[in-house]
């Protein structure tokens, strides 16, 4: 055991501390007025409360990506990071969604629009919608997000035909208590609230009471000779309102069903047949406020696969969004206040987009594209999250395995570049931030080109992280069944290649292209595996430092048009151009760009000298890579590559030293043996071909 056993008393106290202290208390309307004067945000509408929710859990500006990240999505503090979102594109989409909610909070128009999350399957839009609902529930439990509603009490004392079972009735729409005030008097209160409000929006409320509450108010005012104070003091109790999707309170989801089994009453509510005999058909007390729009009032309405709904249902959304009212069958209109979110996949959107009969609906939606991740290292983080959240067997994930799987996913999502000077893999690396100072690649131009050439947007098509994650999971289980304690990129490639044809969401016309992309990824992995083995076999820190110092001495002499002292003879000589080019060619720096690179490295050294930092080639990534490759070229002729693929020499001291060096780079011992054999065979083959 790692800690003390929790007793029932401990658990009970923990629960009690987690709920609002006034959750079960009934307050007076006068108390509510005093509270709302002291904290006007209590009377916020749904858009204002949801907008503040995103800010409440924290924000961070990612300077590298140039986008605002909301910590509820980038860190998920409520669930210990279990539901973190990755990728610049995704966080841009979340930011766009929040901006539309914030615009709605200010009354700029989006409050009267459906926020439609559009994206391919598995892009995370449903999960973002889900996590928004969970955080809204939590926010309303806190003082910063609190809201209240009211209930009618002692109704049978005045209304003689009231069913005794209905002596106490909670506001059917969970409305804010301010709606109990007639509009003129309500406006007087709201004017005072806005004078005390510290927010970028103003409090507004011009809703009418729901029909049942309007009925009670009219009867009670008649009884008390229009004395509003008597009505609220004798028959109104203010209660805390907490959002709960399970209770269908302020949060509601709605999904399409078979046409024969679904009608509009699921959205707007229906007659309460058990009350018909008591009140009669036209009595508002005989209406059941159980429609999805009714349940979502004061909070979030979430429409799953929204565009799969029949056109008749979508008409209900026109009034709900634009007019912020619903009109149930055989019942007066009902005002609603909620953030309406819809989700849809690409095929349904394409179908409805060209439908002229959908023009009014399309005009009342604000589309937010939710694309796939386009940075392959961020994509790899999605797979890591999947593994963290699962009961994964005791298996070691080898270096590059998740990144190369992510690279394959990204290649299927981005548009082939027009420029002959850049390959698709280079474009993916550029999106990933792998740009050297000397690279002539304009990432912004690449993104603009991708957006213009894509059907709807770059990243809105391709292979999903869900599919790749499933194949990684299969590869893990396959490795376990084979008695292997590691997962390598090679086994992941095998599962991806074998299962592309069997995945139903991949169009057949894309299969040949996707297999070609997988070969590109194999080639990229081969280069990385060889680089790792090269590092293990030939790495010599002292030699790299010595070669680095020699390179810089000759570069400085070249720039200053000076001479350098020969290491052996001590005589002055011209800079060794052959040696300089031998280093630079390892980075594929052409002859006409050598001066730029040399000046770049010289400036870097001078800058470090001014800062009081000594020269260290390990601190310059490009120079370090070039020197490592130069050292490899110098040493590889003395390495027996056949030994790398020979099982008979597994116990050889030199081979074990190589394995140890690979383990230091993050490999398991079994994985190190595999990459030695793979890279050794590839290098041996290239040597023979050379």
From TrEMBL:
One Pfam short name: AAA_PrkA
Query: Mind listing the UniProt keywords for this protein, alphabetically?
Result: Kinase, Transferase
Source organism, top-level taxon: Archaea
This protein's record includes keyword Transmembrane helix: no
Domain PrkA AAA intervals: 27-421
* UniProt GO MF annotations: protein kinase activity
The record's annotation in SMART domains points to: AAA_PrkA
Q: What is the official name of this protein in its record?
A: Serine protein kinase, PrkA
